[in-house]
Specification:
It holds the Pfam family Thioredoxin_4. By secondary structure, the protein is α+β, with helices and mostly antiparallel strands. The protein has one domain: Glutaredoxin. It contains nine helices and eight strands. The strands form two sheets. Strands 3-4-6-5-7-8 form a six-stranded mixed beta sheet, with helices on both faces. The radius of gyration is 19 Å and the shape is globular.
Length: 236
């Protein structure tokens, strides 16, 4: 009897895992360089009409910055980017209540003994100077692979860049540059100063400040909106 119960439990666990929902499953599809890329249309709609300056999306003079710490290989970050970020952009960024800044961490590579997370981050930072960071990052989340595998290969990243709004595969810099090295170091310093080792992490920072409170419910846009309103009077 005990053995039968064990078999049943294993079957249920396997079944649940097998049918775990992929937030990118219903995304638009386009074929680039023979590779199917998801989410390009959704990314274009998300960014349409919004100013981009480096890693900041939205009005640079907004009273509050929503600072997101994300990892391109983090499954929860993928879910946040696809399901929560559009509402953040619609309610808070398009209305000018806040802008959105992305800080990229690379926690998964050391944990999984992989190296492709560093490559993906390097490519993203290589697009900052051209203000093409956001389209690539968002489309990469739509096409994220298994965090245990080295899925972020140079050919795939070039295909993602080709499909992402405003970028081309030829803009992909896989080797470290002085700019990408400086951006990586700067964001690593921010992550250490925040004291976080979790992704995604969301903070609200009033204009003129360097730090602000963390919003523990990173997928609760109502909570993020309340936090934005709370710190807005402290902007300078």
């Amino acid at each position: 009897m005990a053995a039968a119960v064990s078999v049943l439990i294993v079957a249920v666990v396997v079944g649940v895992g097998a049918f775990e929902r992929d937030p990118a499953a219903d995304g638009s599809r386009t074929t680039v360089r023979g590779v199917e890329i998801r989410g390009a249309d959704e990314t274009a709609a998300l960014l349409r009409g919004l100013p981009q300056r480096g890693t900041v999306l939205g009005r640079p003079d907004a009273p509050v910055t929503i600072l997101e710490v994300s990892d391109l290989k983090c499954p929860s970050c993928k879910e946040h980017a696809i399901e929560t970020q559009p509402e953040i952009v619609e309610r808070l960024v398009r209305t000018g209540r806040a802008n959105l800044r992305m800080v990229l961490a690379n926690f998964r590579d050391p944990a999984r003994a992989t190296t492709d997370g560093a490559l993906a981050r390097r490519v993203a930072y290589g697009l900052v100077a051209a203000d093409r960071f956001w389209g690539f990052v968002q489309t990469t989340f739509w096409n994220q692979g298994d965090t245990r595998e080295e899925w972020a290969t140079e050919p795939l990243l070039r295909s993602i860049a080709e499909a992402a709004p405003g970028t081309t595969g030829g803009q992909v810099a896989v080797r470290e540059t002085p700019d990408s090295r400086a951006l990586t170091a700067a964001d690593d310093r921010i992550i250490r100063a925040l004291g976080t080792d979790a992704t995604p992490s969301v903070y609200v920072v009033p204009r003129g400040a360097t730090t602000g409170p963390r919003v523990s419910a990173f997928d609760d846009v109502d909570a993020i909106a309340r936090a934005v309103d709370d710190v807005a009077p402290r902007s300078r």
